[in-house]
Amino acid sequence: MRTVIRHLLALFCLLGLAAPASPFPPQKTVTPERSNAITCLRGLPGCDVSALNLEELNQVSAAAKKRNLDYCLNGSTFCDPTRLAPAELAAMDAARYRRNLDQCLLGAALCVPSLLRKEDAVQVQAGSQRRNYDRCLTGAPNCDPTRLTSGEAGVVEKAAARRNLDRCLSGSPMCDPTRLSASEAASVRVAKLRRNRSYCLDGSSTCDPWLLTSSELKEVREQYQRRNVSNCRNGLANCDPIAFSQTDWNAARSAFRSRNLEACKRGLPTCDPSLLTGPEMAAVSAALRQRGAQKEP
């Protein structure tokens, strides 16, 4: 019996030795001391420097210096320049100058022109001059015309005259007719008459019939008549049958009788049964009976 047990134990040992190794490396337990070191290395609150060994102290010091240098190079408020070496101070000053130069080249309000070197100040001034010229060309309110050269002022004046002409041609209230030449004023007049004709043809309240020629007035009246006939045939409230011809009147009445018959068939309150003929009344009765039958279960 003892021999059997010894054999079984030996077999289990062999199986244990032959078992494949785990593909996952063993997890290292983060001790409280190591966790504190990581906190200190990252510059996080809760760091206890008194618990660090000499190697960890050196690593934490190097990481703090690196973070401070990055803060200073990026212009962060966390930067402490007193901790920088001379070479690092020079790098910080160069980065700060470059940031200010970029702001000045963009025309940003954060630009400090007094910190610029002479050659860079010339470049910044040229960029500011170009931006002001572009603003004046587009009629921007922050244009400073006093900074324009005589050539630039001439181009800007022509651009402003063109914008004013475009506004006048489109009927804008921002048009200044006093700035128009004789030929431009004539073009504006033609555009105004053309717009007025369109307003009148569309039945707009902005139509001025006194600006129409006799042929245009006739055209507008014909268009109004067609629109009025259509309104009456469709039963619209703005129908005006007073000026109808007999043909138009008959067509409008026929359309009305058709609408009335349909309203009666559908049982609508707009139905006027006094206008129905005998056959129409029969058709209405049949339609109502059919509707009632469909509602029954």
Essential attributes:
297 residues; 0% strand
Tell me the distance between the termini: 92 Å
Helix content: 55-70%
**Overall geometric form:** elongated
Main sheet, how many strands, which sense, barrel? none
Give a count of the beta strands, DSSP E runs of length 2 or more: 0
User: What structural class results from the helix and strand content?
Assistant: mainly alpha
**Run of helices and strands:** HHHHHHHHHH
Q: Point out poorly predicted stretches.
A: 8-24
Mean pLDDT: 84
How many helices does DSSP assign?
A: 10
What is the CA-atom radius of gyration, in angstroms?
46 Å
Q: Could you give a short description of this structure?
A:
62% of the residues lie in helices and 0% in strands.
Fold topology:
Blueprint lengths: L1 H17 L13 H10 L12 H20 L12 H20 L12 H20 L12 H20 L12 H20 L12 H20 L12 H20 L12 H18 L2
